Structures are given as structure tokens and as C-alpha cells.
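Aim 2 progress update. The chain analyzed this quarter is reproduced below.
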Amino acid sequence: MKKDKIIIFGASGFIGTYLIDSLLDKNYHVLAIDSDDSLFEYYSNKKIDCLRLDLRDSDKFNEIDSTNCTTVIQLAALQPSNYNPMKHSPKDYLEINAVGTLNVLEFCKDRNIPKIIYAMSHRNTSGHWGKMSKVRESDGISQEYLGEYSMFSIAESCAHECVKHYSESYNINSIVFRLPPVYGYGPHLDIFKGGTPIRTGFQTFIDRAILGKAIEVWGNPNIGRDIIYVKDVVSAFICAITSDSANGLYNISSSYSLTLLEEIKTIIEVFNQTNNVELLFFPEKTNFIDCFVYDNSKAKLELNWAPKYNFKSMLIDYKKEKESNKFSFLIEKRKKMFDEYGKRI
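Predicted C-alpha cells:
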């Protein structure tokens, strides 16, 4: 017998794909919603209910079957790493991330859905980075207004405020996850940086480690940041779905500062058979790594959640997922996005 229905917006994204896989294993009934056309091919083949919906189209929400739905999960967002300047403008951040989330909240209110879980990035705390050992939920927003993440972050902050308003005004139990960079097999091959496709440093390190080629270490090798594995994020969602008391903002983080040097050395250890890869240090070059660590003690206490994976065990599992080809959908989807960018320019 299936459990309650979970409706997921942003279902064909990185976290959504992993989350739905876990929910199905736990026998939940899932309705997958996304604006991406690839949603249908992937989920229909798995006999999962799905609906193509653009968050900006409020009328389309009338087509959603919310029967027996106990939780809505809002993952859908336009992100800078997916920002194709040939397709989007900064206005889309507000229309998709803020107004789109408002439409989801209206849907929850109108259908009397008791719980919403909203996932957001950590970008609106950037003013705290480097000023405290670990950023807590109670430290509040410290927004920066310059750079490619500014409009994205402003829109997310607006969405978060809307979630709080609907929670207090309409008795919707709202849980908000603040996420640092989420790693896992799928999205880390290529990203948009300033609107231009680039190979990620993480994937470059893996590629060169596999081939036994020298790896360049730019800037300060001891600079570090907090990252979290996608499967730890998924387990936090499961805890939030099943919790009767969780409410408000939670840092879903490792609470650990992974340094650049530790990252590279661990990648070599996992992906190179001989561990014989030369490191070339270039302290004069900028590595563009931001320093931040988040206190996850509130999530541990109130959600009864804790990350299971350290960076090494994450890489080992990442390697297994790659070899299994289970989530190849995410790779093909991302490849198509960048191929389309190439055609447009």
C-alpha cells in the first residue's frame, strides 16, 4: 500500500531526481512537476505521474491532482549555473524563483496542503562569510548586491519571506532548507559562469586524476568551504516529510570546511589507481573559492538528521553511481542544454 502523495516542483532537476528515486523506494506516491520537456520521457518510462508546468502560469496549477497530498516540495528555480543568456534575462529570476514560489504557496493554501518544504541556496548569507566560524540560522540574511548571484539571491530571499508569510497567515507548516554547494553525480560536468559554459574545477580534477595527469592548484590551497552530498540532502527531506514538529529554517550542511588541497588529494586517492599525480602549485593565480561553513546543529536536533557521507565516502559513492549509469538522465539533460547553447551562438 502506497503512503501519502508528495508533489515535487522541479522534479527533473538534480536534487529532485535523487529525491524521487528515494521516495519511490520508500513507497510514497509521487507527482513529478517540471517545466522541462525531458520530464515526460524520464518519468513516464518509470510509470510515475508527471505534469509539465511553468511556475509562472498560475492557471496551469488547476490541473494538478492534489488528492491525498500531505507535502509539497518546492525545488524549482532558475540558477546562475544554468543561466543561458541566450534564453533568459535577470527578470526571470524574480518571475520564476519569487513569483513562481508564490504561486506554489497559493496552491498549497487553496488545496489545504498542510506542509511545504522549500529549498534555497546559501547565497543570501554571503556577507557573513569569513566573519564567523559557522553561520547559524539565527544570523539572518546578509545580502550582497554585486555580481552574477545577486539577482538570483534577491529573488530567493523574496521567496523565503513569502514562505514565512504563508506559514504564519494560513497555518501551512513550512520548512526551509538552506543548502551550500550540493555535490553528486549529474550536474558537475559543465556550468555557466558569467553566462559562458565552463568545465567545473571538480570535474577537471577528476578527469585529470583518472588520466594520471598533473593537477594545477591555484591560490591558497588551504582555503576551504562547506559542501554537502546530494544523498545527505535527500535524507534531510525524508526526515522533514516524516517530522511532526519541524518548522522554519535549517542549514543542511556538512558543517565542515573542505580545503582545496584536501579535495584534490582525496579525488586522486579515489580516482587514480597509483595515486601518482603531480600537483603544480600556482599561489599567484586566483581560485575564486569562497570561504563558508554552516552550523547544522539545529537540523541534527530538530530533524534528527546528520550527514552520513564525508568527502571520501561521497566520491566512492559518486563513482558507483557513475558506473551504474542509473542517473545518466541528468548527464544527457545537461549535455543537451549546453549543446543548445552552442547552436544559438
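The first strand starts at residue 5 and ends at 9. The chain has one domain: 5-344. These observations will guide the mutagenesis experiments scheduled for the next reporting period.
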